[in-house]
């Protein structure tokens, strides 16, 4: 069925949304394993996925705790990573135009994947379908696989011995890599890696990820200066 306003067929929107939801939702297993390996209980692990529901922040939190970081520092790192969702919400609120009573519930699903699917749609109808299907699929699968991962980690015992402590970071990098399309995005990622890994031996656990966040404004500042210089040179050439 094609939407009445000439947008993308509903079936195509649902197919794309399900693809994203299933692909990312299954990685909740890695979070469950990582969280259990960091010392969190099954209840704490599942509560994080149910209530926080933003993968990068969850991985940052349990990763810092696993490294022996202070809980407050770990929570701060997770919080700063999650701030980006507030900016997503500003844009999505315009595109979705949901009734006021529904907005608090929809806010729980404002994450990278639902935003990406919604922004790719040409009409409000397809935006709403894409956002809803992606959010529902991802929320259900993420929480189910979190439970399975945590239960599995408790069953096998020491996750470090199996190398499962690296599952979380590996999944996160696998999801992030395809999104780095521009030179600036790659520069930000590269600088963040250098800062994070370089400061890991000298700063308390959880702090390097906060410092690594400085990669974004630093790279954007350099990019802005480069564009200004290019513009100035072009203006002089026209004279």
Question: Could you describe the 3D structure shown?
Answer:
It is a single chain. α2 (28-37) runs parallel beside α4 (55-66) and α2 (28-37) packs parallel to α9 (124-156). It is built from 14 helices and no strands. The chain is globular, with a radius of gyration of 20 Å. With 239 residues, the chain is mostly helical. The mean pLDDT is 82.
Radius of gyration: 20 Å
- Major β-sheet, in short? none
Structural class: mainly alpha
Please state roughly what percent of the residues sit in beta strands, choosing from under 5%, 5-15%, 15-25%, 25-35%, 35-45% or over 45%. under 5%
Helix content: over 70%
Spatial shape: globular
Order of helices and strands: HHHHHHHHHHHHHH
**Rounded average pLDDT:** 82
- In DSSP terms (H or I, runs of 4 or more residues), the helix count works out at 14
The number of strands is 0
Distance between the termini: 57 Å
Low-confidence stretches: none
Sum up the structure in keywords.
mainly alpha, 239 residues, single chain, 14 helices
